Amino acid sequence: MRFSTAQTNITPDKPVFMHGYGKRDHKSEGMHDPLFMKAVLLQSDSGKSLLLVTIDSLGSDRSFTVGIKNALQEHFGLHHADVMINYSHTHHSVFLTGRDPSLRRGGYSMGQTQWPSHEDELDYTEDELFYDRLEGALLEMVRDCYANLVEGQLLLARADSNFGVSRRRPNDQGSVDWKPYYEGVIDRDLFVLKLVDSEERLKAILYNYGCHTTAMGAQYLFSNDFAGKTSSWLEEAYPGAAALFLQGCGGEIKPMKGAVGDSFKACSYEEMEEAGVDLANEVAALLEHGEFTPVRSDGFRSQLLDPQLYTERLPNGYYERIMNDSAGGEFYQKSAERTIQAIQDGSIKDRLPYYINIWQLDDETRIIGMEGEVSTQYGLMIKNLFGNGQTLVLGYTNGVFCYVPTAQMIHEGGYEATCNFFFGLHGPFVPEIEDIIVGQIAKAVLTKRSGE
Prior knowledge:
By secondary structure, the chain is α/β, with parallel strands linked by helices. It folds into 2 domains: 295 residues, no CATH class; 32 residues, no CATH class. Helices cover 30% and strands 27% of the residues. It contains 10 helices and 26 strands. The strands form 8 sheets. Strands 1, 3, 4, 6, 8, 11, 12, 14 and 18 form a 9-stranded mixed beta sheet that branches.
């Protein structure tokens, strides 16, 4: 096979309103560590190309994702299924949109000075200019990747990690509390994909773990949180190798570093960096001592599924109570107000198209990338379908519209199951979304595997 890598700094060059915490009330104040966009181009022996892009941002809507994929298809012939865009989900960056307002999620813009009560308060000029900057930079990166392909090999290893902890502790009322749940069953897989050239020199480290990049609280300096430190540490420890964080299914997972007894704390910058170094050491241990399996490169296959996920339709009165309850905070109140407005004008959504991107690298090795803030339980369920330890399951891929809870989470309630009104959805998802997601993946992969 052949491969190449590229990266560029995408840190905004002026103050903007950051996304990730509803309590923020003014624009950014500088940078703690730079934000990056990175790319890895893989080309099989048969000539099939796959492009993996990582972006240090909270996520994006389809206006951004479709715009980027259209540009890559126009310039390089890469089909939408051949491109995975994975977001680190750092809460110390921005949320990305593109130039097509019909595909925009709304409710936030980089240029805002406060959270809006109505969508028409927002001006997306800065967001569209930032999109242009990222699209242009990515096209240049991919040109460089095609021009600098080298012969090499892709290898895979995995280990168990206790870096993360669930934030959904069951309570006596049959629901959950936002507290560390140390006994919770979560996806603890730490995967490392390494790319080596024909002389076995390490050229790229792709490490995958599912955990919110929220070691810190709502500060105002740009940062990729612990993942930024992990990647920079690895690139210093392994000169000449690019390090890319692949965000997994971490919807309800927080860094263990921030768990203190019965609650979570916001780590200082120093503590956040310590967490990043802890994860880097786990990756390095796997690089040095792990059992790596070569990935055959005689042919890659890619699919992009797009099923519909449906929501309940809650009445206006539900959101009126939230809007009138000051105890929930201004962000909740304004989100409820926007939801009521959307119900009244007919723009409210009761279904959501949902990207599922599947790359079959060889008969046993695959990467499955899913849109949204996906529960750790999906990672476990999907891996159990195949059971061979060679399936990477990514969340936050090709867009981040909202949380994607399991049927059990929807029954229990809690933040991840009830916050859909932040995002212009009519209510919580119906429990059947779990069957839709897992069923679509099983059908796609197992049918291909059987040769039907």
